Amino acid sequence: MPPMQEREVFDVLVRGDGCVGRALALALSAQGLRVALLGREQPARSEDLRTYALNASSVALLRELRVWETLPREAWSPVYEMQIHGDQAAGRLAFSAWQQGVGELAHIVDAATLEQQLGAALSFAPHVRRVSAPVPAALTALCEGKESEAREALGVRFERHGYGQQAIAARLVVEQPHQGGARQWFRAPDVLALLPFERPQAECSYGLVWSLPSERAQELLAAGPAEFESALLQATEGAVGPLRLASGRAAWPLSLGRADRVSGPGWALLGDAAHVVHPLAGQGLNLGLADVAALAQVLREREAWRPLGDERLLRRYERARLAPTLAMGELTDGLLRLFASETPGLRELRNRGMGLLNQLPPLKRWLTARALGA
User: Fold this and answer.
1) Residue limits of the FAD-binding domain (predicted)?
2) What are the structural domains of the chain?
């Protein structure tokens, strides 16, 4: 990526240098648009323990950007089966790629590696320049995350509801191969997901995402490895055998958030700057990459006479993303509240509902299609 030339004119300023911002810069550069990318070039991170569950639409976008093929094989793992456990024996739900007629249900991807490879692809993008301060552009795309200062400066109201929970991430190893199987436990008051992975040990590793009340999360973060592994064994009911820590542990607070508007004259919001959801469905980055695909399509299909920052043009993007993001926010929030309740009658009802859904293949296929981004 060549350095910025003095007085260079840009079509789009992308504020934010995470996965969403980098993907947008690549997508718009491919259209021949002149893009300024505002953010750090070499992010200084400590060990990044996050994993992303990418759906088929996200993988398709990364293929289109010629990034997917550059990911090292050990940086991603396909999910062929998903088993969901409730908090009673009747609460069981299983999905398989074979039954749904797809190659994979999802791909689990190392967060740090994906961000690095997006950055590597940018070095070959002829129309992208990195900038260290905002520059004039016809359109500003805000991909700065949920704490975006530029969003606040625009007067956009970001409604956020804190769950009083934190998500713990770690890497785990087991004795038996995972065989591409993911598992998730929905209970009051926590949600635990084991995501099949290849690091540090091929076929015998999991990425952990464990959402708990903040006080309990802090207790587990402070616990020694043996105590933490014991808590994991109890929480997973020994379903995959003993789980051993193979990394440090990290945590972050969880919330539901949505901007009251995601576009205006000369600007648009994408990713966490526009919406934040609970990670129980693994759809956070999928929503952000879907924003990228939608905005890129709107700009690509605009009338030749219409400016990039035209408010009516950007409303097309807003309309395209309104229903999917609102539906995912309501779904994740509803599921969390449903399984957070310890009311005996409701507990029995939700577990029986899971068992009933497991016996309805057409509805399962419909749900799978929504999760895959179809």
Assistant:
1) 136-323
2) 10-76+107-160+254-341 (3.50.50.60)
